[in-house]
Structure formats: structure tokens, C-alpha cells
Amino acid sequence: MMLKVENLKKFYGEKPAVDGISFEVEKGEVFAILGPNGAGKTTTLKCIVGLRKISSGKIELEGTFTYLPEEKKLYPYLKVREIVSLFKRIGKNFHEERSLKMLERYGIDPNEKIVNLSHGMRTILYLSLVLAEDVDLYILDEPTWGLDPIVRSEILEHIRSLTYDGKSVLYTSHVLAEVEKIADRVVIMKEGKVVLSGNLDDIKSSYKLVVSKDELRGYLLKTLRSGERIYLMKKEEIPENVQVEDASFEDIFEAIVRGERDVQ
């Protein structure tokens, strides 16, 4: 176990941003936190790395870690090579050549000022700094935001490859397709709470879509013009003599997050 979060709560005034969540990240896995805007994903990561003081609960973190924030802000009037030199001094087991190699791979000029970089280039620059650190746990908040599809795919392969050396990754993303591509386990958050968690393959195999004109005990995904309803249901809860279809992870996420549940 690299990280254990137990009954974590974080309040801003009387409003809970994170409301009693628990999960563990194991050695050598990619663990994803998902949820709509305002679900508490970023606050959770900030509590883990110590940028927010927790209201209650417990966080146990083993080994070393590095953190990529959601907002990819760096000193705008420094040159790229100057920020690399800065990280070389303050980073955790920082390998400068790794950072420079990534920058070269994506055509980022070391002599360019950060203020002149596009959003995607700033993301790559920040990634080059964080991924050049040799740590046990990489905590990444929206690591591919603003990247084009080809670069995103390459970055995801890089992130996944970290686990081949026994490293662990905890990250958030709004892109469900990339989560399916590299994550081993996930938690889905809504309004500060965990509404679903588990092994990604197990989750996908546990649910089906059911089409019925009757009200069923399941998560209502949509209502068709014909009046039929499409429900997301656990396989063991599906009644007999109904139309059943496979559920995509996107279907599962949408239905669980919406949380519209009919009762038979």
C-alpha cells in the first residue's frame, strides 16, 4: 500500500467539499478519481499532498511523491531552461536529462519564455518536470488537459509505463476513454462522497443496461420517445423477461453520477 485515505472530510465553513471518503492506492497501480465538476477531486488531492488542512479523517502516505496541480501555472517570465534548472535544485531525485528529452520530443525551445507557450505546451513542460522526478507515487490532477489526441495518447503510455517499475499513479481526469485505457481501479465522486469504487474491469462486468416500459429498481439513464426507459442495473438485480444490453463505462458513469434511481 502506497496511500491510505480513511474517512477524509474537508469543510469550507459548513459546506463539505470532501465528505467521509476512503480508498487505498497500491504499489504498481494506476488509480483514478472521477466525478463531475465540484465533486471534490482536486480538494482530495490537495489534502493528500498537504496543500489543504483536513477537517477530519486520516491520510497515510508511504514513500516519496510528486504532484502535478490542476492549474499548470509556472513563473511566466522565466525561460524554459531556467524553470528546469530550478526544479533541478528543488526537485525530488530530479533527472534533468529526462525533462530535456521530453521537451525536445515535443518541440519546446528551452530558451522560450513560459508566457509565450500555448496551454498545451505549458502542460507538457509541467509534465516534463514532474515525470523527471524519481518518486514512489505520482499524483496528477488532469495531466492531459489541453493536449491534442496524439500527444495525449503518448503521455498516457508514459504514465502507464511508470507502473512497470513498481511506481504508483493517482490521478484525476474528465476523459473517461483515457481512464479506461490506463486505470486499474477507480473511485467515482459526487458532491464530496464516493458513489462507486472498485476494479475497472469488475465494474464494467457488473452492470448491464435494461430496456423496459415498467419502472425498475435501477439507475435511470434515459427515457425513449417510445416511452421505454433505459436503466443501469447490477446483473444480479435484473428481472426476467426484459431486454438486456451491454453497458459502456460512460453509461455507468453517467447513470451513477446522475443518481436518478426508480424503485420497483
Plain-language structure description:
With 264 residues, the chain is an alpha/beta fold. It is 30% helix and 30% strand. The protein contains eight helices and 13 strands. The protein has helices at 41-49, 80-90, 96-105, 119-130, 149-161, 176-182, 200-206, 249-258, and strands at residues 3-12, 15-25, 30-34, 56-61, 65-68, 137-141, 168-172, 185-190, 193-199, 207-212, 219-223, 229-234, 243-246. The two termini are 41 Å apart. The model has no long low-confidence stretch (mean pLDDT 92).
Query: Which descriptor suits the 3D outline?
Result: elongated
- Spatial arrangement of strands, main beta sheet: 5-6-7-3-8-9
Largest sheet data:
6 strands, mixed
Low-confidence stretches: none
Q: N-to-C terminal Cα separation, in Å? A: 41 Å
Beta-strand percentage range: 25-35%
Order of helices and strands: EEEHEEHHHEHEHEEHEEEEH
Counting helices, strands and paired strands, the structural category is alpha/beta
The portion of residues assigned to helices is 25-40%
What is the mean pLDDT? 92
The gyration radius over C-alpha positions equals: 21 Å
